[in-house]
């Protein structure tokens, strides 16, 4: 009789645990990161007798969460790539919208400027025609400035986003490390039973962290070890590493990510090692942004420089030699902070702007007077022409660099060269008086001489940008490349998004809460509870019947 009561009670207990588990699933139907839980049930050890083994009911072994480590690993990889592609696409759209905007179309601005130079060619003595050249020159300078400022703001936005991402990464890493400790303690207090809520919370944090930087996860004794960037540890047991935003050792105008595995130790992580997650997407976009800025500045630089040179070949209405019409920002260069030598670049000059390319460079000292120049936009290695030792003069692609003393160099020393990127920062109009426009070819040829004005007009049809493009075709190439890159980024993002959706569906089919399924399970456990209660009622009735026998 007592055995029957025990069997019924065990059924009540199992049903109650099942009802509680299903209810918890339903309550967490929309909880991010929650994995569906199920009750693992087994029969109690039976009692042996001469008539055979008699069952003693059921028991709950554990409450398990439905979690597939392999599917989740696939999903994390896809999510990291998706976050990267999403970041690249969202950022590229901003440049695409800027360059495609007719209001700030540099091609139209250049065309309008040369149209007014044409008017001056037709009427070199007309002050009104000359004044429109001055007016459209001012507008063109403003247009270049607007575009460059917008691109610089995007660059500053990258720095801000990097700081935000790095801060979130450190918070998540610390929380995961703390959860590793809590999970270990919880398992000890419950004789090895899994603390499902803590496990879900930890996995959700890993998911969020992975979207930021792309991580690899290994499990050791129940704790997660989390690494990124080719094995750098973010979480090791209950210890968390830290990352920070630091000034790039190669270029003080840009930020990089530093890694601190322990207090007092910090080193810069190469950009090439972070290519997934939002941070990797920012790096990829910054590469494109750098190239775009350089190419826009290249157009402005070549335009202003070549216009100045031709203008200085002529004479103005007063018979004076032509002056520079436009000012330009200077090229810049930086020594790498990790250089072992003390040599520095004492001068960087633009010697032939049509030969210059829209890119930054890295200049590496190979030893014994040997140098290597690398275009950072495409990785092309350029053999430079090198002369002298004090100073060392390095020339390539229209650029000349003077390094103070070869004796101060060490093998492996490098320098970052930015010959074009700051051209627009100093772009301005130097001539305000229309009479100072040098349209004539001689000082005494009279106001009707338009020979030099014709030469100025001819600049628009010459392949001066990179030695292969006119000003307008060079700008059209920039717009076309950005448009193509934006479309490709959208395609990649949509494709990766579909992969994430498919893997998410697969993961949810196993681990997600389905309210219809939970309703069925709830009814099953309620009926089980009622049936077990009937067993207890029957046992009680039989017991009372026995007691009533006299």
UniProtKB/TrEMBL annotation:
Q: Where in the cell is it found?
A: Bacterial flagellum; Secreted
Q: Which domain of life is it from?
A: Bacteria
Question: Which keywords does this chain's UniProt record carry?
Answer: Bacterial flagellum, Cell projection, Cilium, Flagellum, Secreted
User: What positions does the domain Flagellar hook-associated protein FlgK helical occupy?
Assistant: 92-326
Q: Which InterPro entries does the UniProt entry name for this protein?
A: Flg_bb/hook_C_dom (IPR010930), FlgK (IPR002371), FlgK_D2-like (IPR049119), FlgK_helical (IPR053927)
Pfam families attached to this UniProt entry: Flg_bbr_C (PF06429), flgK_1st_1 (PF21158), FlgK_D1 (PF22638)
Q: Which residues form the Flagellar basal-body/hook protein C-terminal domain?
A: 511-548
Which segments constitute the Flagellar hook-associated protein 1 D2-like domain?
335-419
Its main subcellular localisation, reduced to a broad class, is: other
Q: Which family does it belong to?
A: Belongs to the flagella basal body rod proteins family.
PANTHER family xref list: FLAGELLAR HOOK-ASSOCIATED PROTEIN 1
From the Swiss-Prot or TrEMBL record, give the protein name.
Answer: Flagellar hook-associated protein 1
Q: What is the lineage of its organism?
A: Bacteria, Pseudomonadati, Pseudomonadota, Gammaproteobacteria, Enterobacterales
